[in-house]
Amino acid sequence: MKHSNRILGKRLAYSAVALACLAWGSACSDNDKSDETDMNVTESTKESLNKAFDATQQAATYAKDATQSAWSDFSDLTHGKKEDAVEFLNRQFIALDQQVELLTEKVEGSTAEGRVKAREALEALKEERTDLKLQLEKTKNATEKGWSEVKLETKKKWDSFTESLQELKNKVSD
Predict the structure, then answer these.
(1) Measuring CA to CA, how many Å separate 148 from each of 17, 25, 84, 154?
(2) Number of compact structural domains in the chain
(3) Same domain, 37 and 89
(4) pTM of the model
(5) pLDDT digits over 45-81, tens only?
(6) How far apart are CA 111 and CA 154, in angstroms?
(7) For a Cys-Cys bond, which of 15, 27, 28, 111 suits 48, CB 3.0-4.6 Å?
């Protein structure tokens, strides 16, 4: 796997977020010192926030691209590099678990009506997560003969889980 691509992706994403924060902080600082009218202050802040938004959006796009690249690298791994594949999946799993935890907190904080529907979807997601965890075990135990099939199955289950996760995020956000 191209470890340096993932590190570079993370560094660029963090850098973009830091720049966005600096731009926003600069606008706030400029606004405190300014004797301009409220209209100019508002425009300056709006411009800075737009820059911050654009930088954050670029960082998210880059992070998504880096993840897709990492999955491409996963698909190219041979059975001899199975340990690298399992390590990659474990890191991805940790990140997904963090997202599920945050989503669980959002569900619990939602309105009573929304919470019932969201809890059902969350339970289904957790069942899918359990299935994905079993697939991770299959990956760990895969033989050279079944390696290609296990990788394909892992990717399919992973995609299904992340799609379900995104659908639930959208429901909770609405």
Answers:
(1) 38, 50, 15, 10
(2) 2
(3) no
(4) 0.58
(5) 767 666 665 665 555 554 554 555 566 677 788 888 8
(6) 35
(7) 27
